[in-house]
């Protein structure tokens, strides 16, 4: 369940980032209905809203939209690493059992390889 939950969180973050590019904001959108009609802006200023609001400035001031894009990227990357770690630990055997098995295998190999015979010269 934990693996599925983190995968779903990753997918939601990706959807939010894409909705931000389409200027559809999760927290709400402030729309100007005057004659000059300014672009819609986010009311909560979440990461996806910041991406959508400032993506037009990417050519002139690239660091403004890159900060929330990098935050999304690092969050998704860290969640992916968490999922990989959880999958690795869920599929492996407990550490105590593997340690005992390794010790038994070492003893068996040691007995097979180091079987000495005593030879005397008479």
Notes on the protein architecture:
The structure is a single chain. With 122 residues, the protein is mostly helical. Helix 1 (2-21) runs parallel beside helix 2, helix 1 (2-21) runs antiparallel to helix 3 and helix 2 (47-54) runs antiparallel to helix 3 (63-91). A two-stranded antiparallel sheet has the order 1-2. 62% of the residues lie in helices and 3% in strands.
Task: Please name the defining characteristics of this protein.
single chain, 122 residues, rod-shaped, two-stranded antiparallel sheet, mainly alpha
Secondary structure layout plus pairing:
Layout: H1 2-21, E1 29-30, E2 41-42, H2 47-54, H3 63-91, H4 95-113
Antiparallel strand pairs: 1-2
Helix pairs in contact: 1-2, 1-3, 2-3
The overall pLDDT, averaged over residues, is: 83
Biggest sheet: strand arrangement? 1-2
**How far apart lie the N and C ends?**
73 Å
Low-confidence stretches: none
Question: Concise description?
Answer:
It is built from four helices and two strands.
């Amino acid at each position: 369940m934990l693996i599925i939950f983190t995968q779903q969180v990753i997918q939601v973050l990706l959807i939010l980032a894409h909705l931000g590019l389409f200027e559809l904001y999760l927290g709400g959108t402030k729309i100007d209905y005057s004659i000059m009609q300014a672009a819609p802006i986010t009311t909560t200023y979440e990461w996806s809203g910041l991406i959508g609001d400032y993506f037009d400035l990417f050519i002139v001031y690239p660091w403004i939209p890159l900060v929330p894009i990098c935050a999304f990227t690092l969050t998704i990357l860290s969640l992916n690493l968490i999922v990989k770690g959880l999958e690795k630990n869920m599929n492996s055997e407990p550490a105590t059992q593997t340690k005992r098995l390794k010790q038994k295998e070492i003893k068996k190999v040691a007995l097979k390889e180091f079987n000495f015979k005593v030879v005397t010269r008479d």
